[in-house]
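Bit of a strange request maybe. I'm writing a small parser for structure token strings and I need a real example to test against, not something I typed by hand. Could someone generate the tokens for this chain?
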Amino acid sequence: MKGSSRKNKTQRKSGRVGKGKGNSKARTRRFGRAKKVEGGVLIGGKVYDKIKGTKTEVWNGTAHRTGGGVTKDGLIHTGSRIKFAAKSENAKKNKNLGNHLQKKGSGVFGPKQ
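Reply from user aminoacidic:
Good idea to test on real output. This should exercise your parser:
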């Protein structure tokens, strides 16, 4: 078997070997080109310590985006929490609490008993 190239089942079917996953250029175009500079990464005229980070790091300006690709304009700060704006809007729209709350104007606070 020395010198023979072995392909797995999916590679035999498709005939493609070593093509990689996804289109990396599309991601670059979406977020702009990142340039390494002293002290971090330059994206869109601002220097970040890292490209990907947590919601808190994105909110504070340490990272450019989250692992899922959400930038600071896709986050909201409510009370003491940082949330995804789109996810929060969907939760409001779907009324996730359903019938667990008291009717408005009933004079009783909190969940149904």
